[in-house]
């Protein structure tokens, strides 16, 4: 078991290092951030002074070593645009993204998993077809398009919800629906498939023959044995909590780190972009680690394989 988690930890560190290195190289080879920040009409002397001030005149390898060393100490640099520590800027925006993501994700869990179970229990019937139609709709419809449709209907036509901004629960409704629809549809599809695989197993028929009530057979026999693929989907979507909010926050003007990333990319604020890419990658990696841990708790055979 120790060897299993040691390998997982080393893979996590290697993945994050690769992401940081890739982002660092791509950002510095895709254009001059100095020109993007102070304008192409700036004097050459001003451009050179800005480069020296921020260390952008040094060789790329020297900049990389300095950045990795600072990151190892928990320092993510200073924003070129705002002249403030990057960590302060991210922490100001992070609560808004977490609030949006957790509400959307919680609603998706409450809707998606029961819907998938109901569809499996009513396989081939009207309820099953209706739920799968919703799942395909949520899975296939792009976030930005769904967000625009909601704005047109609830903000322009009905005029009952604000189209952008934050501050009240009303501002949260449409972004949460937009962000959670995809996850709910995905969970419904995978839950239905996982449940169908176990509903006809011998132990389910044995439980029915013993007179176990249907709800107990579903909750205590079928659902635990179908949990592995469901937990996988839950973990993957949890890892996309921040990455998936980028488009939604931009459409609704939500002041989170997804919108911050778009603004930082457009202004080529290197330090902010690098830190946000690392945050998104770390979220995905930690979600995968959590899924691996839950695998061992749900299935003793996986723990035995790890040993």
TrEMBL record:
Highest taxon in the source lineage: Bacteria
GO cellular component, one term: plasma membrane
Predominant cellular place of this UniProt entry's protein: membrane
GO molecular function, one term: dipeptide transmembrane transporter activity
Claim: Membrane is one of the keywords in the record: yes
Mode of membrane association: Multi-pass membrane protein
Domain ABC transmembrane type-1: 94-295
Keywords on record: Cell membrane, Membrane, Transmembrane, Transmembrane helix, Transport
Transmembrane segments: 9-27, 98-121, 133-157, 169-188, 226-252, 272-298
Record Pfam families: BPD_transp_1, BPD_transp_1_N
InterPro entries, per database record: BPD_transp_1_N, MetI-like, MetI-like_sf
Localization per Swiss-Prot or TrEMBL: Cell membrane
Family according to the record: Belongs to the binding-protein-dependent transport system permease family.
Protein name: Peptide/nickel transport system permease protein
Organism: Palleronia aestuarii
């Amino acid at each position: 078991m120790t060897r299993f988690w040691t390998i997982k930890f080393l893979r996590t560190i290697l993945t994050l290092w690769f992401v940081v290195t890739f982002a660092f190289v791509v950002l510095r080879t895709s254009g001059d951030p100095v020109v993007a920040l102070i304008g192409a009409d700036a004097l050459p002397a001003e451009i050179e002074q800005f480069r020296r001030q921020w260390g952008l005149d040094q060789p790329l390898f020297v900049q990389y070593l300095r950045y990795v060393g600072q990151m190892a100490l928990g320092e993510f640099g200073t924003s070129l645009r705002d002249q403030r520590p990057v960590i302060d800027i991210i922490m100001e925006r992070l609560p808004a993204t977490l609030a949006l993501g957790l509400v959307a994700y919680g609603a998706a869990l409450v809707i998606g998993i029961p819907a998938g179970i109901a569809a499996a229990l009513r396989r081939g019937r009207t309820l099953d077809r209706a739920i799968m139609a919703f799942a395909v709709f949520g899975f296939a419809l792009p976030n930005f398009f769904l967000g625009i449709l909601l704005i047109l209907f609830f903000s322009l036509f009905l005029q009952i919800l604000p189209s952008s901004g934050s501050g009240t629960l009303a501002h949260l409704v449409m972004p949460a629906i937009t962000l959670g629809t995809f996850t709910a549809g995905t969970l419904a599809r995978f839950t239905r498939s996982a449940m169908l695989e176990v509903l006809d197993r011998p132990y389910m028929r044995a439980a029915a023959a013993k007179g176990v009530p249907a709800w107990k057979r579903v909750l205590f026999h079928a659902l635990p044995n179908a949990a592995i693929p469901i937990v996988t989907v839950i973990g993957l979507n949890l890892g996309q909590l921040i990455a998936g909010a980028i488009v939604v926050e931009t459409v609704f003007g939500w002041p989170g780190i997804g919108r911050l990333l778009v603004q930082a990319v457009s202004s080529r604020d290197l330090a902010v972009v690098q830190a946000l890419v690392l945050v998104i990658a770390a979220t995905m990696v930690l979600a995968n680690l959590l899924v691996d841990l839950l695998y061992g708790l749900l299935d003793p055979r996986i723990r035995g394989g790890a040993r």
